[in-house]
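Subject: two folds for Thursday's group meeting

Dear M.,

Sorry for the delay on this. The cluster queue was jammed most of the week, so I only got both jobs back this morning. I'm pasting them in the order they finished. Each block is the input sequence followed by the predicted structure tokens. Could you check whether the formatting survives your parser before we put anything on slides? The first protein is the one we discussed after the seminar.
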Amino acid sequence: MKKILVYPYTYENSLLAFYENSCQLFEIKGFLIDSFSLYVGRDATFYSKDKSNVYVYGVNEISNLIFDGVLVTQIYSDIELENYLKIERFAIENGKKIYVFDEIVNTGIIKNLNSIEILGEREKNLMLDGNFHEIDIPIISIMSTGLSCDKLDVQLLLTDLFTKNGYKTLAIGSNKYSEFFGIKYYPDFMFSKEISLDKKIIMFNNYIYKLLKEDKVDILILSVPGGILRSNNQNPNFFGELAYVISEALLIDINILCVNFTDDLTIEYLEKVREICRIRYNRVAEYINISATASRLKPSENGEEDEIEYINLPYRFVKEHFPKICGTDAHIFCAKYYLGDVPNEENVLLQLTEGIEVL
């Protein structure tokens, strides 16, 4: 397995250190950031109760590190671009690989395309028969009310739970880091604006049927792209379209809904979003994951609609302020920090595997 560094260090990509033991694509050796950053020298998962022993290094330290390549996850600012060019120059001179996602390539900011390898490409031009098939294995869907709701954390928790109990899973994910953990990306047609909803439903049903014919699995775990409803005009969450396509294409057995953290979460809000899942997506949310990220409205400076700002929360804060909800039959938990009524052998595993024989 190739050893890589990740640039730049962010909360989002720190999950590669958080779940380093589950990473199947690369071995994560460290993170790079601007040499003047306060994060230099810190453990990449310092915000958690469990440290990873994967550290953050300044870009100027790159020549002292042992690695095969660098994963570049974003280039937003002039400083990030300046540091990227240093990394690119070092990589080319020393025979190191640079890995990027296609979203960065599409910006045109990287000029030397010969030095990179693109990750995250979706399956295209699939041969599908166009028929609607019955899918006869248990299916778990992981939906969310918006962004930064830790759907990948839930998917990894469930995959690990079923795998260690002897069940073979097929997981399809909506996070750009999905393939790092052996999770398939959704095929390209799901995001096409030229394909109608009814055709997408049939195509996705046929796609899953084809996958299951090729590989015998016991349980299907789907992290649904986007949200179940529009957050605001700037973040429409696909208007819940993909959640609708998936819920019409397949019969969901368990639905898990992920929401942003708030310490004043009410039973009224929970029952409202659970009811949306039941009416629009054919399955009530039996499990509610409280993410380790809070959201709030940030006043717009140009007079447009307020922006949504996300705040990442450390383990200690989430544990101390984890909401206590009474009057609901939903299992409420936090997957990232393993708090609350977490899915386990006594609830979700037992519910799904009755009648399934482990081979």
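Second protein, same layout:
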Amino acid sequence: MPLVDDSVDESTPWLISELQNRYVTTDHGFVLDNAFSNSPVWCLTCPGFERWFSEIEAIMNQTLGRRLAHASAESEEWRWSFAPPLPSKWIGQQKKRIKIVNEDWALRGLGQLTMLESTGSTATIMVANRNHTALAAGMANATWECIEEQRFRFQWSDRGVGETVVEVTSDPRTIPVPKAPIFPWEDVAGNVVKEQAVFDRARHEADGFWTVEGNRMMFLSRDLLMRFESLATPYIEADSRSTDSRTKWSGIVDSEQNIFWDAMAEASRRQFMASGELVLIASPEHWIDVGRRHLSLLGLGKVGSAIQTDDYGGVEIVAPALFHPAIAVGILLGCWERAEGRAAKATWSVDELGHRIKIESRREIAD
């Protein structure tokens, strides 16, 4: 009778080595991209990102694909400004530049860039094995501008088989280069240490396509997320915030930003609840392990400490650093609701110790 070894390791050692060389972890639960000025990144599944993005669109009742694509283009242009210059030799220059781009994209799980046809002022390019079509379109356009060293307008179509086709047309306008995004909070600086990360179990599937335990993975930079937020908030009606919001964002005075953070947090909470993850909390100290599993492994931050605030599961969490407060608060709300079995609300603030998150029952409980 043949023996079946259930612990067979299907990961790809050379891929894991390359990922670990490029993406370093910190003692505050971050994953940093050392090819992009140590920018924090979120390591998540591609289906997970699609569901999270769709939840935001549904909550806000808006179509946000175009804004995501332009945020992606801005972030990708900003990213390549930190990279070494692309090859400038005339013979085979375009192919050599595309090769370098694809090597970068392969580790980031973005697919592969291919030029289908080009006339100088126009081009048709394709992203094969793409993760999300709007992300792929924006990144492809920005990368093509770097390759051709000129500005392009772009539009895209999705072939539905993991391929996004992008049509670019030369743009004679003078468009300023992107600037660094502004963060309305300050994290406590952490140290680079070797911590467990989800990509430690990566498996190569195809060029630009890798998985962990059968789930396709990708990296999303905080730079891109903040650009998406800044492009989406101007279209929000200031008086559209729910009077029964789950979270108070102390220090965030802009009403449109409050609404967008509400949407990101609620999308994160819903996605966590839909995952069916089991959370057991017997004492406040257990929140540290919850943070390690649901935040730190993905590069979203760390629960540094937690104290009980009432007799009904209320807790105050201190996190020295968070990838984005709205995403982390939404996940922690989901964890609390899974553990306590009832709806929760939260208050977020930031001080010299980092992020302070108070979570308690959403409704008052009679004594």
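Two things I noticed about the second structure. The two ends are 62 Å apart (CA to CA). DSSP finds nine helices and 15 strands in the chain.

Cheers,
T.
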